[in-house]
Amino acid sequence: MRLLRSCGFAVLLLLSAGLSAAQWVTQQQLLAEPPALLLDVRSANEYAAGHISGAHNISHDQLGMRLAELTAYRDQPVVVYCHSGTRTRYAIELLEAKGFSHVRHLRGDYLEWRGAGRPVVMGDAP
């Protein structure tokens, strides 16, 4: 059992390491050139407790059912984040599989955004 957990962790590390530099967006890049869509794939409660200004919230577990809301962004820059990266990777894979061509991952996700002392907005989506 311990070996299986270790293997799973190694696979997760390999998957996250497999993203090229072009697939990441830094905090500085996000601030300098906001994407057409900033997508927060955390839960609604997490989003309400604090999110990056301008972010649209669709929980990763609802994303497949709500893709129609995002079709206008299919060929535009989309930056995705969650708390620490796991849900973001799932969302990126789903979006790319559905034909979204410019999907990127916010390096460090929300955890590093807050850690850097960047501003956040509290409250539900408008």
UniProtKB/TrEMBL annotation:
SUPFAM superfamilies: Rhodanese/Cell cycle control phosphatase
Record key words, sorted: Signal, Transferase
Domain of life: Bacteria
Pfam families: Rhodanese
UniProt keyword Oxidoreductase present: no
Signal peptide feature range: 1-21
InterPro entries: GlpE_sulfurtransferase, Rhodanese-like_dom, Rhodanese-like_dom_sf
This protein's name: Rhodanese-related sulfurtransferase
Organism: Atopomonas hussainii
